[in-house]
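Notebook entry, structure prediction.
Reason for the run: the old model in the group folder had no record of what sequence produced it. Starting over properly, with the input documented here first.
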Amino acid sequence: MACALCERLSFDGRTRLFRCRMFQSVAAGRSRMGAKRSIVKENKNGRQNSQNAEKRSRKRKNPKAVRQLTAIYVALVLVAAGAIGGGVFWAVHSTRVTEELIAENTQESTTEEESTVPAAIEETEETQETETETETETETEMLVELTEDNIDGYVKVESCKIAQGTGTFSVKASVEEKPASDDDNFYLLKMNMYDTELDAGAEPIASVQKDKEFSLTANVNENQVDSRLMSKFVVAVKLKDAYVPLCDPCYMTNPEVLASYQAAYPQRSSIKGILVDPLRVDELDELHVNHAAYNIPVGNILGETTNGLFPTVYYTYDGRTYAFNGQRIAEYDSIFSRLTAKGITISAILLNNKSSAYPELTHPLSRGGSANYYAFNAAEADGVKTLAAVGAFLAQRYRDNDHGIVMNWIVGNEVNVRSDWNYMQYVDLDTYAREYANAVRVFYNSIKSMNANARVYVSMDQQWNRDLSSKNSYDVRDLLVSMNQVISSEGNIDWGLADHPYAYPLTNTTFWNSSGKIQKLITNSENTSIVTMQNINVITNFLQKEEMLTADGEVRPVILSELGYSSSQGEINQAAAFAYAYYAAENNPYINAILLSRQTDAGEEIAQGLALGLSTQGGQHKYIYEVYKNIDQVNSNSYTEFAKSVIGITNWSEVIQPAN
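New structure, fully documented this time:
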């Protein structure tokens, strides 16, 4: 039976056996000692012995002691001689000589004592200092034996950050006591994003002499074949010629310092936005739009162009060259540059539409299913490299006025609904959260290394805490908690939330008149089943919890990137529902944008009873058009007053609660 430590730390069968024997020996040692505790070693040297010898040498050379002994010896000899001779003369003479010698010696001794007092004091002080130094050295050299009880998290990582302008990054860490190992070093080792344990053949990329606080520095190798921007790192020691990790893996958390584009995130006069119809972009000025969302199915933009008018765009990243479809890229250039010229903040939604030509985009557990969109692949080397190249290419291209500037990037669509919008074979919540968190980090690092102040968002729907028995979806709250734990434990980054707080059900335009059964699902408690615009504060209150904050202690940015109400239940009801939603979002200081879905009705949605557009497919404006246009203007009340009577209120405060 393998020991518990082997299960956690073994890299292969051989190493597992070796480790097991090693820690069994340690356990046996603890048993013989009669207590389960750490073993402390003291490394000693010859310094104390040499100091003792030096003090003995100084004692032997003490002139005061020599003179005193000589005087006493001479006196005794003379007295003895006088006695033997029997004569009074010799006795008297010897006595006089003895008195003179003693007096002379006493005088010299007094002088020497006065001159040697400072030296004696100095010698005592030196001895005390030496003893103190020896004690201090003994303390710093105390080494704690690593056991299966203390090895996990033995090293506390404080940060893993890139030093701007140096091409290097440093892992700063600490220990309470220095651990015993084969040598006196800590080592830094690299792991791939998808690795679950340290490879047995891994070699250190940096080392440093052990100390209670220390830093390990290595090269980032930005945009090189051996780039480390997507890698994770562990601090280890060497035990019996094997590297043993002493901490959880950590990633670089500040890729933005690599970006040459450092423009500030734009501030807009309004939170109002929309899912854009590319055929009606010119209409956006009249609508006073400040925010726009646009989809990018990643499978569509990869590959060489067959249309000679739009040459293939080649892009080299980390030593590989990728081909991007020139015609598709030209279409995005046109849309994004026009939106940028209008002063609109763009949110690009990155979607995996599972291209057969680029299977590496799709997670291994997602390749056999059938859905609208699929989970991105950060579980394999080719997947990580391709996703990083896509993120870097898009972020680098869309950061100027010629191509347009995209400041918001949303990874996936309603990823909590795994069966339809982020397909993956069913796995437990934590496994699913980790796979999504890894994909988010790939896009985060690649995007922000090109555009320092761009924001990267995760996408969720309104199913907050359903506790359904079905395996088609995960609850949003549970997924956010698990994903945040993964990201925070490996290096916290500033991800934001792109939420879709549709009414429940989606066709329920007059949600304020919902049945009692539905209303029970929508409460102001954190345990509410559904989050809509009636209780949107639940989300922002939740994100204010300490464990959900950014590394700097800030509440994460929130945008309502998709929200709409159908005119199938009446155009006036649709307009009233939008007014309710807009004022609820505007009243919440943590919501940065509300993007209506959509500018024009979509045929596939109409078939489901969802006519969500401001205009019909033929271009005819609905009642909501004028409400949307003026809701953030100075005369907005004259366009939204009707909604109060439709909803059955006299004041908006009756249905909109202030955010915490």
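Summary: Residues 255-654 form a domain with the TIM Barrel fold (CATH 3.20.20.80).
The old model has been moved to the deprecated folder.
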